[in-house]
């Protein structure tokens, strides 16, 4: 009989230890759950919402529309730069427009590379700017002569800045 009593006491002691372990585990789960909820709540708030000065986001539905919206923010008028949009092969032409834009204080507007006509958003922005000169950073293979003629028919002088070749990597 005593043997059973000893075994029962050992089982009881083991059960009490397991009960304490389970209580500790439940507390740990509650702490982890609370931390997870706090982390989710913090990630739901954008970091810039807590910033004192949030920059204005300028965007359009397309790259061409975004260029027009940026042009409206510059305050520049009198001249514009026309660069190609939409083809990786014309990226160099478009990149060349950046320093030129800063130098002559003219916004960069875009037209689809190879498109036979001037984009309506770009045409409207040239009119709004009262542009007298448009610098074109691509040749007629990228910005067709028909587009240049369309700009000229608006009473705007076109200055073609295209090179004959594109520098290739060795």
Q: TL;DR of this structure?
A:
By secondary structure, the protein is α/β, with parallel strands linked by helices.
Could you explain how this protein is built, in words?
With 170 residues, this protein is an alpha/beta fold. It has 2 domains: 49 residues; 98 residues, 3-Layer(aba) Sandwich (Rossmann fold), CATH 3.40.50. Helices cover 52% and strands 12% of the residues. The protein contains 5 helices and 4 strands. The protein has a 4-stranded parallel beta sheet with strand order 2-1-3-4, with helices on both faces. Helix 5 links the parallel strand 3 and strand 4. The chain is elongated, with a radius of gyration of 34 Å. The termini are far apart.
Structural descriptors:
single chain; 170 residues; alpha/beta; Rossmann fold; 2 domains; four-stranded parallel sheet; 5 helices; 52% helix; elongated
Tell me about the largest β-sheet.
Answer: 4 strands, parallel
Radius of gyration: 34 Å
Number of domains: 2
Q: Based on Cα principal axes, name the global outline.
A: elongated
The quaternary structure here is single chain
Low-confidence stretches: none
Mean pLDDT over all positions: 82
- Main CATH class of the largest domain: Alpha Beta
Termini separation: 95 Å
What portion of the residues fall into strands of 2 or more residues?
5-15%
CATH fold name of the largest domain: Rossmann fold
Secondary-structure class: alpha/beta
Helix content: 40-55%
Instruction: Please count the helical segments.
Output: 5
Total number of β-strand segments?
A: 4
CATH architecture tag of the largest domain: 3-Layer(aba) Sandwich
Report strand order across the widest sheet.
Answer: 2-1-3-4
């Amino acid at each position: 009989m005593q043997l059973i009593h000893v075994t029962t006491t050992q089982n009881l002691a083991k059960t009490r230890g397991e009960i304490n372990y389970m209580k500790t585990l439940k507390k740990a789960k509650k702490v982890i759950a609370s931390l997870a909820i706090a982390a989710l709540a913090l990630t739901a708030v954008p970091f810039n919402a807590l910033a004192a000065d949030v920059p204005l986001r300028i965007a359009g539905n397309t790259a061409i529309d975004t260029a027009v919206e940026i042009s409206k923010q510059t305050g520049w008028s009198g001249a514009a730069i026309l660069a190609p949009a939409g083809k990786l092969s014309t990226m160099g032409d478009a990149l060349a427009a950046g320093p030129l834009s800063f130098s002559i204080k003219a916004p960069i507007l875009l037209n689809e590379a190879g498109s036979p006509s001037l984009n309506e958003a770009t045409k409207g922005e040239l009119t709004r700017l009262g542009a007298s000169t448009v610098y074109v950073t691509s040749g007629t293979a990228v910005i067709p002569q028909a587009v240049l003629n369309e700009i000229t028919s608006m009473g705007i002088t076109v200055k073609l800045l295209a090179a004959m070749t594109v520098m290739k990597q060795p």
